[in-house]
Specification:
By secondary structure, the protein is mostly helical. It contains 10 helices and no strands. It is globular.
Length: about 260
């Protein structure tokens, strides 16, 4: 798993530098804003994944395996249902007859797709850790990084218009393949009757804990949204590239550690 994490991080950094070589500064700045926006979709599960990760192993440790399994199934049911509803809602917004929405309709639709993809990937990551299937988890991480990079190279060769949107699609494409791989190998069914009491228990545990990373990510990305109002598109693009280098220097020691 550690090796897979390092490989995925290296592939991600290489893809970012490759994207920087494809785009002009203003386009690179826009791509980083889109990437930041889509990244918020990681927190659309209302803490359900965190709650499952806390509650299921606790019951497994007490040898209450059926209870642990039900927690995982109810968590999956909730994450799947909520992500579908949120994705449909955001996707529907892209069709509203307003000029401001029409100008960003593709980005809104990509955001809708990212909610479903990231929510399910995060759940399957939790499931793989709980059942101890780290081989599948490692393969999915490498697959996501490699496929996103391959799709990005394809875009750079064959796509000449709307390049920023297509770079975003390439990134999500790699994540989608990773999600399909996880779903095929971690077969967990949502075809069960909802247990609202158990779902509530999961959220009571997970939602407060999920607020911490939400606050952290908002603080870490606030500078990008502020700078878009006070700098030119080109200047922001150079800033985004510098931020990419800084993030690489920040994450690599913890990844290697």
């Amino acid at each position: 798993l550690t090796i897979a994490t390092i490989v995925n991080a290296v592939l991600g950094v290489f893809r970012q530098f490759f994207i920087a070589s494809m785009l002009d500064p203003s386009q690179f700045g826009i791509w980083n804003l889109i990437r930041t926006l889509l990244g918020y979709a990681n927190y659309g599960d209302f803490g359900a994944n965190t709650g499952v990760l806390y509650e299921a192993p606790k019951h497994s440790g007490r040898e209450q395996y059926e209870q642990a399994k039900e927690i995982r199934q109810q968590g999956f049911l909730f994450v799947l249902g909520v992500s579908i509803v949120l994705s449909f809602f955001v996707f529907s917004i892209s069709f509203l007859p307003f000029e401001g929405i029409n100008n960003y309709s593709m980005i809104i639709r990509l955001s809708a797709a990212s909610i479903l993809i990231f929510s399910l990937i995060n759940f399957y990551n939790v499931e793989a850790r709980i059942v101890g299937n780290f081989k599948i988890l490692s393969m999915s991480m490498v697959m996501a990084g490699a496929a996103s990079l391959a799709f990005t190279v394809f875009v750079s060769i064959f796509i000449k218009e709307n390049i920023v949107e297509w770079v975003s699609i390439a990134w999500l494409g790699g994540m989608f393949l990773s999600m399909i791989y996880l779903a095929a190998n971690l077969r967990i069914s949502a075809l069960i009757k909802p247990n609202l009491i158990l779902i509530r228990k999961i959220l009571i545990v997970g939602f407060p804990l999920s607020l911490i990373p939400v606050v952290i990510i908002l603080f870490r990305t606030a500078d990008r949204w502020i700078l878009t109002t006070v700098t030119s598109a080109i200047d922001f693009g150079y800033y985004a590239f510098g931020a990419t280098i800084g993030m690489f220097l920040y994450t690599m020691p913890s990844t290697l550690g």
